Amino acid sequence: MPLPHMWSRSFLVGAALGAIALPLGAQQPAAPAAATPRALTLTAAYQLAEQRNQAVQIARAGVERAHGQEWQARSQYLPQLNAQLLYTKTLATQFSALAGAPDTRPLCRVFTPVTGAARIDSIEAGLANATNCRAAGGIDFSKAGFGAANQYQAGLTASLNLFTGGRVTAQNRVASAAMRTAELELRSQRAQLALNVAQAYLDAVLAERLLVIAESSFVQTENTARQVQLAKNVGTTAEFELLRAQVTRDNQRPVVIQRRSDREVARLRLKQVLNLGATDSVDLMLPPGEEDASSAAPLLKLLGATPMDTSAGQRVLVKQSEEAVKVQQDQFTVARSQRWPNVVLSSSYAKVAFGQQDFQVPNFNSFLTNWTVSLSASFPLFTGGKITGDEMVARANLREAEARLDQVKQGAAIDARQAFSQLEQAEAAWRASAGTSEQAARAYRIAEVRYREGISTQIELNDARILEQQARANRASAARNLQVARLRVALLPDLPIGAGTVNVGSFNTGAQPSAGAPSSIPGGQGAATAATAGQQGAAGGVSP
Q1: Whole-angstrom distance between the N-terminal and C-terminal Cα of the chain?
Q2: What is the reported pTM?
Q3: Is CATH 1.20.1600.10 what the domain over 39-75+168-328+387-502 is classified as, yes or no?
Q4: Residue 415 to residue 202: CA distance in whole angstroms
Q5: Domain-by-domain residue ranges, the chain?
Q6: Over the stretch 35-78, which tens digit does the pLDDT of each residue have?
Q7: How does DSSP classify residue 314?
Q8: Hey, CA dihedral for 101, 105, 108, 113, is it positive or negative?
């Protein structure tokens, strides 16, 4: 994108650089081979920063964590089902003392006497068998697990909360509030990052413009010095005029060096916000012209920022404080729920088998079934004041959250008024600088003609040059301040309170006024100040 028309004399910069190349080059070390610069628009710079910014990554992790907490809280509404596999090896047991040799006698049979001559013999035979047999039926203790060397168990357990005194419901509301708070925090961090990137980007653009203005001013002083030198050679100008022109030109060289340093600092600051290396090269694509103070519109479209209600109730921090009040209300409900009974329905189903042989898994028919269903209710009878203490703490936290909400609302209202006041100030400065820059440029052209025709002095020419340089710098600074102010107001609902204040201070062009000229000219903003104005931190944090 070409530079504005008011810098049409920039073709003279090439000629002037030839005059200052040797003295300036001698003061700077040889630069390494430059890498391919990274082309960046304002929107592309934000997209790059969002991928790398730690604060945004932390906020995204917070959203994911809050989503997991919602799952945890919601699970208490549903049955809890667990499976269990158990193997127990008994090394020693008290039942070993009761163990003996296995009874190998035949089972006792029901005696049925016969009739006739053999009746007596059958009775005697039945009596003999009854004294040497083992009883049938009863409990087979070899399968009951008393002293079994090996035990195998596979089972399921299930439980369901029937009544918790409101604890589970309150915990779910707390989790939902935490989720909304995390989403608000992500919005806030993205908005803060957008404002930081825009400030750093526009400060780098402003520093570039101030460098062009300083170089253009140096060209002007170089042209004047050359004209005076020619006039001195032909004898129409005194040596005093030549010395004045040369001193004015030489005094402009440190200004050019300072502006170059300011540009490098602004670019380093931009790289820091973008999490780029100090050696990475960036090329600011399509920098906004002085007549365009709306270059942040594509970024606002990307963020989905539309004209919104900027009242205190719509601020992110206010909404987060409201969610904090809801959380403390539910925490008080949780503390109070301890006074109510806790009713739980549970069931256990298990298959159990026993064996005396090691490493011998019983077959399926050897497994026995255990199945129980229970309903339990528990409530505190005496806790030594713990529940009362929990309620006192929860009540105090609730009152604190309500007081903080009122405090944040007051701060948000004041912050919104300050933001709109700064926007009005920036718009007024932008409108005021619209005609001044053109008038100052025309005044300098007239002063050049007057000086060349010999009807004015070098003092008048220097004064006109200083005023033109001042007006152009004020115009560039006003454009930067207006864009930042507009962006801040557009992002105001999502920004932290006090974020991105637009600083408008005094501007010092670095030009040396001539004798008779005013020593300082108010208005605008200096390059050193503009290069860092409003920037609050690369990680998305901000200090009011």
Answers
A1: 36
A2: 0.72
A3: yes
A4: 23
A5: 39-75+168-328+387-502
A6: 577 788 888 888 888 898 999 999 999 999 999 999 999 999 99
A7: G
A8: negative
